């Protein structure tokens, strides 16, 4: 069997076959990974991910750490409605151990790790993250994803199985996922994954110890939120990769998935650690309102030669052209930045043509 080039391909291959299909009978995991816009962090970028999660912490008291981390929550939006991000797990772990003296004891030497990230289909300020990892032919994805809102609203997700847990226990578990300690945020919660629908899957996770299962992904938000916050301000280069080959799923041949490799472009006379801290400080601007705007849909681009007759797709925030079938997404006005640093009000001057 030809080795899969990425964690995404490993997950799609594994979760399209028994025994994974017994617990994900609807194929939710491989389907959403296939639909996602995929980003692969190279070795150096994976090390930088470790720095993003640690560089802002030294010198801060516990209260200030919680305030800053909640500021990262308000900036943690996705570049695409369904996004897949994976990184080099050994490079990430080695950087934590050597640079930050953090040694993680794991039962299995994971070689690949990442996140399946989804924006809520109807509420564009709510998001879900499912941590995933792979090693030695074993591919796992969390049955208890994290959900958060970037505004002041509560995440619009339900957790029917976790409702049996006291709220204090859920608060403690969310603190574990952030690795900040006593980070009790109403806009953050842990829910049951969408792929846990069939009777077999629900019986399986009921047999697992909830706390132990969630602890396997401890600290994941400590690195994910700063990454989402800082990625647009980090100097990077990208390279589109279209792998050759594929694998068989039943009687069907599935090609390996296209993805974008992200590499770090460190300025001269700057260390990776200093760069991470500087970028995070630059992104933590004072709170401000961001005007509503359209965003192009990467999977359904608008034809530039088309005259465009746009119509709203029901129950979504998307508009589709009846002529070229291209789409664009409407991003409503929302708060950005850190309110603890104050507010900035933008005034926009509108001028008619020929007047000043």
What does this structure look like?
- With about 350 residues, the protein is α+β, with helices and mostly antiparallel strands.
- The chain has two domains: about 5-285, no CATH class; about 295-330, no CATH class.
- Helix content is about 30%, strand content about 25%.
- The protein contains eleven helices and 18 strands.
- Strands 1, 2, 3, 4, 5, 6, 7, 8 and 11 form a nine-stranded mixed β-sheet that branches.
- Helix 4 (about 45-55) packs across helix 10 (about 220-230).
- Mean pLDDT is about 85; it is low at about 340-355.
Count all strands and give the number.
18
Tally the helices: what do you get? Answer: 11
Q: Structural class, judged by helices and strands? A: alpha+beta
Shape label:
globular
Mean pLDDT: 83
For the report, how would you describe the main beta sheet? 9 strands, mixed
Q: Report strand %.
A: 25-35%
Radius of gyration: 21 Å
Ends apart, CA distance between termini: 69 Å
User: Number of domains in the coordinates?
Assistant: 2
Please give the share of residues in helix: 25-40%
Uncertain runs with pLDDT below 50, 5 residues or more?
A: 341-353
Sequence of secondary-structure elements: HHHEHHEHEEEEHEHHHEEEEHEEEEEEE
What are the SSEs and their pairings?
Blueprint lengths: L6 H9 L4 H4 L4 H8 L1 E5 L1 H12 L7 H13 L7 E7 H12 L11 E8 L6 E10 L2 E4 L4 E4 L17 H12 L9 E3 L8 H9 L2 H6 L4 H11 L5 E6 L4 E4 L2 E4 L3 E6 L7 H12 L2 E5 L2 E4 L13 E3 L5 E4 L5 E5 L2 E3 L1 E7 L12
Parallel strand pairs: 1-2, 1-11, 12-18
Antiparallel strand pairs: 2-3, 3-4, 4-5, 4-6, 6-7, 8-11, 9-10, 12-17, 13-16, 14-15, 15-16
């Amino acid at each position: 069997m030809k080795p899969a080039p990425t964690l995404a391909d490993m997950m799609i291959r594994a979760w399209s076959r028994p025994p994974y299909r017994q617990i994900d009978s609807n194929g939710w995991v491989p389907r959403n990974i296939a639909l996602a816009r995929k980003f692969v962090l190279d070795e150096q970028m994976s090390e930088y991910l470790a720095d993003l999660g640690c560089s802002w912490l030294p010198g801060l008291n516990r209260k200030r750490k919680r305030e800053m981390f909640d500021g990262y929550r308000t900036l943690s939006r996705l570049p695409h409605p369904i996004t897949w991000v994976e990184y080099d797990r050994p490079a990430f772990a080695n950087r934590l151990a050597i640079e930050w003296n953090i040694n993680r004891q794991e039962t299995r030497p994971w070689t690949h790790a990442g996140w399946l990230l989804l924006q809520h289909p109807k509420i564009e300020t709510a998001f879900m993250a499912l941590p995933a990892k792979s090693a030695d032919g074993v591919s796992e994805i969390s049955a208890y994803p994290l959900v958060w809102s970037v505004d002041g609203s509560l995440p619009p997700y339900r957790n029917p199985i976790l409702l049996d847990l006291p709220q204090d226990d859920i608060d403690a578990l969310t603190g574990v996922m952030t690795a900040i300690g006593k980070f009790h945020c109403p806009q953050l919660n842990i829910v049951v994954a969408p792929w846990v629908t069939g009777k077999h899957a629900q019986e399986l996770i009921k047999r697992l110890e909830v706390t132990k299962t969630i602890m396997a992904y401890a600290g994941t938000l400590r690195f994910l939120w700063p990454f989402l916050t800082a990625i647009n301000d980090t100097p990077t280069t990208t390279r589109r990769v279209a792998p050759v080959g594929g694998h068989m799923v039943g009687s069907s041949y599935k090609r390996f998935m296209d993805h974008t490799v992200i590499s770090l472009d460190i300025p001269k006379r700057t260390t990776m650690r200093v760069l991470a801290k500087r970028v995070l400080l630059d992104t933590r601007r004072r709170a401000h309102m961001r005007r509503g705007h359209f965003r192009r849909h990467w999977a359904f681009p608008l034809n530039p030669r088309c005259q465009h007759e746009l119509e709203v797709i029901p129950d979504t925030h998307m508009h589709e052209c009846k002529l070229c079938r291209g789409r664009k997404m409407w991003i409503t006005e929302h708060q950005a930045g850190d309110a603890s640093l104050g507010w900035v009000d933008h005034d926009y001057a509108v001028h008619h043509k020929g007047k000043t």
